[in-house]
UniProtKB/TrEMBL annotation:
This is Putative phosphoesterase. The lineage of its organism: Bacteria, Pseudomonadati, Pseudomonadota, Gammaproteobacteria, Enterobacterales. Coiled coil: none annotated. GO terms for molecular function: 5'-nucleotidase activity; metal ion binding; nucleotide binding; UDP-sugar diphosphatase activity. Its EC number is 3.1.3.5. It is an enzyme of class 3 (hydrolase). It comes from Escherichia coli. GO terms for biological process: nucleotide catabolic process. Residues 1-20 form the signal peptide.
Amino acid sequence: MKIKILAAGIALTLPFWACAKDVTIIYTNDLHAHVEPYKVPWIADGKRDIGGWANITTLVKQEKAKNKATWFFDAGDYFTGPYISSLTKGKAIIDIMNTMPFDAVTIGNHEFDHGWDNTLLQLSQAKFPIVQGNIFYQNSSKSFWDKPYTIIEKDGVKIGVIGLHGVFAFNDTVSAATRVGIEARDEIKWLQRYIDELKGKVDLTVALIHEGVPARQSSMGGTDVRRALDKDIQTASQVKGLDILITGHAHVGTPEPIKVGNTLILSTDSGGIDVGKLVLDYKEKPHNFTVKNFELKTIYADEWKPDPQTKQVIDGWNKKLDEVVQQTVAQSPVELKRAYGESAYLGNLAADALLAAAGKNTQLALTNSGGIRNEIPAGRLRWAASSVRSRSPTNW
């Protein structure tokens, strides 16, 4: 099996449209409730704010204004991160996402963090399509979610969008207690079934799949968070008729699309750090498209004017939660950083806290370094941003 990193201009085999036109796909994954701009040590030396959902809204609206044939997708894990998600069990997140121009999203493992009944409750309030086709009630043929895919037509172009969750990723990262009553089933089997159902009905087939290996979380960033998208490559190689696979869960951005057979694999980094943009262009031959342009764009907050509607909803939720989150809980003389595979202040603090809580009969405590999601700055620590709650939003 040959695996290639694509440069602009590599041909895609897709259905023919009567008129030549650009097709633009904007995508995100693993946004993890980072609704406001924030800093990370490995981008601009931690000196510039990045991300922010109001900024992403502005970007997508600009792209849609330039080209009617523009779609915006997300591959899951929009819940869990800063306290705005944890304190509201995702309600605030869906409220904010309702102001963003999503065309379709799928469900990630963190959407189950407060129980699958809460998943259904919160996602039922979404005003945008949510697709999920391989999670079922146990010992039943009944789907957990009633929409495995959707067809979206723009400017004469029809895209079929399928949503799935990797079985390994589901079982590995959704707690056993939470999974009681539901289960993920063979994503390859169900993906091929839905591709076949869409055949002849759409011009392009896109899968939003939350699968693979979870990310490393580290203050060092860079190469430390890079992991191969082996599961996505395997998935693409085992199905026929899939044009684009937008993946989540690995927190690994693809600097350029990965081509496996006739399928392009795309992904962003986590937390809204960057947004992907793929532009397809019909060329000379029927059934032949090329990648005209691709960009994995870092969202520097100082380069964007926040969308006023999205920002208003974010500000409204922050005001509601302000009384709780502004409480001072501790002080630190130094910044507490996280690391992966070596000693770090924040990991040591977490393990020591577990040891203290366990009592005198416990001699050893271990903490999951992947569950440490934020640095803690030096100085007075509030319950809010960079607090223990945002540092470990999943209660690990």
